[in-house]
Design brief:
The protein has about 375 residues and is of the alpha+beta class. The protein folds into 2 domains: about 160 residues, FAD/NAD(P)-binding domain (3-Layer(bba) Sandwich), CATH 3.50.50.60; about 140 residues, D-Amino Acid Oxidase, subunit A, domain 2 (D-Amino Acid Oxidase, Chain A, domain 2), CATH 3.30.9.10. About 30% of the residues lie in helices and about 30% in strands. The strands form 4 sheets. Strands 1, 2, 9, 10, 11, 12, 19 and 20 form an 8-stranded mixed β-sheet that branches. Helix 1 packs parallel to helix 5 and helix 1 packs parallel to helix 9. The longest helix has 20 residues. The mean pLDDT is about 95.
Length: about 375
């Protein structure tokens, strides 16, 4: 068995950013990834948006880590040559009632530390985006987009340069708590046993499943996995927008919004579909609901302009009738097992917050 400081389960954006941070701090780190490549699930199947941090409740982990993570992420992109754009975002109110929602968002964003937000009227919004239809809009200049694959590749490079080893097609089977830390059993073509002092469960969609294979961890500390699928559709033809366009948010998400890739191509999504098993197939018929939602803020959307693109699944720990949950970073103070940290419900804004989450985990291990 190999005696190492930390084993991280999952090579998504959170796992890789954490491995990088811990390795650069002098720790020996191994990342276990059951797939054949990094970031094949939530980290690569999302809107690739760098969020400002205005949506989340005051003092929540989502608010704090997003606001802390955003400038770190922009600085990382600059220093590592990761493609990104600080293109800005307009959140739009389609009626007078939704203006109240924008006012609440504006206040919440200011409380969370988003100090560049500006509530604007319909005329100014149309000056910024001439084909936009709205009663008012909230402008977030610090929102942007990122090449998520390029970002994870840069994280991986730093982590490996600092000594991290990433084992692909190496599924975590179970872990036993020992006097020195953990004995970890790994499957795959070459099964192995590893010994580590600390264990971080960053398995995303599979985090509850992984947690159930850690001996001694009470079921009371493991949430039920909820899969909220979101489909995306791409726009054929030239996009008339230069900013991201979001509708006023609703209880379970941010609505069908318009995002841009780094080439200026528009895509719309995600919607929400609660599913029982992982399935990334995009049903073309779901575009019917997309058209109606998009025409609320872009009445000029051409007919038959949308085509299926891709889908992602949010690793939620609350159901369709439950209030939205915060990130869960469960350490020994929660479950009583020294050296173990479980991450549950790391959905949006996890990508934006990833560098801040890595620092948070380092502080907790230290």
């Amino acid at each position: 068995m190999t005696d190492i400081d930390v084993i991280i389960i999952g090579a998504g954006a959170i796992g890789l950013s954490t491995a990088r941070h811990l390795a650069q701090a002098g720790m020996s780190v191994i990342v276990l990834e059951k797939e054949g490549a990094f970031g094949t699930h939530t980290s690569s199947r999302n809107s690739e948006v760098i969020h400002a941090g205005l949506y989340y409740p005051k003092d929540s982990l989502k608010a704090r880590l997003c606001v802390e993570g955003r400038p770190k992420l922009y600085a990382f992109c600059e220093s590592h040559g990761v493609a990104h754009s600080r293109c800005g975002k307009l959140i739009v109110a389609s009626n007078r009632t939704e203006i109240v929602t924008l006012e609440d968002l504006h206040h919440r964003g200011n409380v969370n530390g988003c100090d560049d937000l500006r509530l604007i009227g319909s005329e100014e919004a149309r000056n910024i985006e001439p084909v936009l239809s709205c009663e008012a809009a909230l402008l977030s200049p610090s929102t942007g987009i990122i090449d998520s694959h390029g970002y994870m590749l840069a994280l991986l490079g730093d982590a490996e340069d600092a000594g991290t080893s990433v084992a692909y097609r190496a599924p975590f089977l179970r872990a036993e708590h020992t006097s020195y830390g953990f004995k970890v059993f790994v499957g795959g073509e070459e099964p192995m046993q590893l010994a580590c002092r600390s264990l971080i469960n960053s398995a995303g969609l599979f985090a509850p499943q992984v947690a159930r294979q850690i001996d001694g961890l009470s079921e009371a500390h493991i949430p039920v996995a909820r899969f909220a699928k979101g489909s995306y559709f791409s726009l054929s033809g030239k996009c008339p927008f230069s900013h991201l366009i979001y509708p006023a948010p609703h209880a379970h998400g941010l609505g069908v919004h318009l995002t841009l890739d780094l080439g200026g191509q528009a895509r719309f999504g995600p919607d929400i579909e609660w599913i029982d098993a992982i399935d990334y197939t995009v049903d073309p018929q779901r575009s019917n609901g997309f058209n109606e939602a998009i025409k609320r803020y872009w009445p000029g959307l051409p007919d038959d302009a949308l085509s299926p693109s891709y889908s992602g699944i949010r690793p939620k720990i609350s159901g369709p009738d439950d209030p939205a949950m915060d990130f869960r970073i469960d350490g020994p103070e929660i479950h009583g097992i020294k050296g173990l940290i479980n991450l549950f419900g790391i959905e949006s804004p996890g990508l934006t917050a990833s560098l801040a989450i890595a620092e948070e985990l380092f502080r907790r291990l230290d």
